[in-house]
# Entry
Amino acid sequence: MDINYELYKVFYYVATTLSFSEASRQLYISQSAVSQSIKTLEKKLNTGLFIRSTKSVQLTPEGETLLRHVEPAIHLIKQGENYLTEADELDGGQLRIGATDTICRYLLIPYLNRYHKQHPRVHIHILNQTSLNCVELLERGQADLIVTNYPNSRMGHREKLLAIHEFRDVFAGSKSHYPELSGRKVPLHELRQYPILMLDRRSTTHEFLHKTFREAQLELVPEIELDSNDLLLDLASIGLGLAFVPDYCLRGHDRLFKINLAETMPSRKIVIATNNTAPVTRPAREFLTFFK
# Structure
């Protein structure tokens, strides 16, 4: 089909705002021009894209499908435009980083501080998501780079990876509540007798621990699943269970101890990922130099 890009652009703004008037405001065109563009696109595609009423606008199932394809294309075009006009990007440009709160707190803060001092006019946007959801941000062009745990089941062959840190996950328990686990090698199957506190199913850590238990032919039934490692450690410190967290999160937690497993827990990595199918902006390239 020979469909003008502008029609898809108008569709994108209406679909993301769910408002013809707001789309016209952002596009600097009249509301009637927006409405006409949508009618033209619907006619060319021979399908309805929106359900219109006097008070609201909703996407049809066909509209939702089209948006999933148009949105990353719009972002990629914007990235390409930014790349071609990047001469002044270190003087008022932006750096969009997708990362978990744990990685931001325990790893990225010193680098962000250094970057900000060197490039104070670059606007740094931190998109706080799980490692799994960060991949989606990268694919949609909503992040210039992401910092994520690896392995990551959402990653394919479209990402270029740079490993920046290696770590091991550990079980941590309260010294006063679980003294019987201290000072010896504890087999993994024995831990099933204790409440296990871990990240929820939206995380790579959740995938990793369940896989580890399956490979040991053990069933894992967590007592508590949350979206914050720091909160898991707080709960472990008052004796509610054993927290499964990256080893670097234990720094400064004097009331907790690392449980020495009889089995060797595989290591994981933290990687910076960029999109192989899109140009890397100059602010992002400057950030990457800190790790090379």
